[in-house]
Design goal:
Layout lengths: L16 H8 L3 E7 L17 E6 L1 H4 L2
Antiparallel strand pairs: 1-2
Length: 64
Amino acid sequence: MDAQHEGTNKHIKHRCFIKWIEKNIKSRQLIYHVPNIYSFNESNSSGSFADFYNCQKDISVLRK
């Protein structure tokens, strides 16, 4: 879990999935990451934890 999110509800799971993809799905690569411009605000419980990630097939890996 990310240290900055330790106080969140138990049903919320923060996962570092990009590292998992890099390790387990070699045919995918991260194209871009868009940080959330509406970050979660604890003082009024508004916003979101979600960023946007886009991955695509890495054709060079598939040809090996």
